[in-house]
């Protein structure tokens, strides 16, 4: 957990404040800075799949975490040496006097960002899976701890973000971005050193070979045998091992996606990838069952990174004085981070035991119900943000940054519900040989949503500029500052998009059947969780 705290002391401030570096130091416009920031966040999430693939297939998760080094020093060098960034200027008040970054400087910038994305993407998904490996699902007490683990995993992310947003952001804005990036690198290295010290005490999973190869083999075998008839008694199909799935959890056959069952039928074909075990077939079925939830969750998450990015820029256009102190816009995220920590602690220690008794679910509510609450909160946050931005544009004097508190609170609710719920869902539904991949699927949702958000920014800008939106030839998000665009209208558009995505998610979630029954066994004590769920699938 200390690793999570230390790394996020550097990661979260960089993710949330990078748009200020891009705009103020690299002289990017509002739209370009926001697009680059969301692309960086998207790459960080998608590259988690690389680390998950390596840890599940070839080496232990512990070593996967250690072999990736952070790339903050590249950005520290760029911020430190004058030849690697444009000369300083007042981009807020005199944007026309600012020199844009050269192509060479932009190339170094992108290299530094993507080196960070590769390293931190692998670290975050493997750290979550490594933590889950420390709990024995067959022990009732340890299973209760495993249910709480992801809540406290998110709590440590928030705690690291809280410290970083207070300390690292202050360093970035007052002592220089070079020192801020170097400090972020140091924190990641200290966290890795602490993790290394615990090596003798960890439980380690055994790599099972490439899970993607096992799943692909199922589709190849099923296609080759597409004209075969299934046995009358499908339960008689053998669940043998051919050596490709050593150490993989043995899964029983389910009735869904029967066309894949043909992959386990012995038709005498001796070619490679012509025969699969039932466990391999069931792993492929697990992936197919999660696809609708994955796609609808990507759409539901699209507005969230955009709201995070533009909220920082909203704060920069407001009066950030709180008494005698001036608060950097990125440090305003302390508000939702504090809400996250308080809500997570209250939810895990007070709400879950009560909900467990009321609903009979081991976790109080199902994972997908928890995610649905988060997506509904996203729509509410966007509506509030649109109203606040519209009011800011109409006022002749600068508004206090405290007007952003309601949308910050709702963003905190989103992280407590959707973030933790989806991470639990994909990690819990994945088989034992695919735990890191399951976590990576969740982070791919965040990454894909960020990239789709970048596309949405470009589409909206072009469409509104062509129609003369935002007054004149500018699009809603064009210009050097927010007053030159119409961020309030863009927020309303995102709210509508989020509402449609929410109902689509509800449709997919209600049709999903869990691999394990989320309800507790009858006769259990209210404060305990069953060590073994039934094999029956339970609908949301």
TrEMBL record:
Q: Pfam families given for it?
A: PTR2 (PF00854)
For this protein, the record's Gene3D superfamilies field holds:
MFS general substrate transporter like domains
Where does the record say this protein resides? Membrane
Looking at the UniProt entry, the stretches that span the membrane are 37-55, 62-81, 111-131, 152-173, 179-202, 290-310, 330-347, 368-388, 408-426, 438-460, 489-514
Decide whether keyword Transferase is in the record: no
Q: Which InterPro entries match?
A: MFS_trans_sf, POT_fam
What is the name listed in the Swiss-Prot or TrEMBL entry for this protein? Major facilitator superfamily (MFS) profile domain-containing protein
Q: Organism, per UniProt?
A: Eragrostis curvula (weeping love grass)
What lineage, starting at the top, does this entry show?
A: Eukaryota, Viridiplantae, Streptophyta, Embryophyta, Tracheophyta
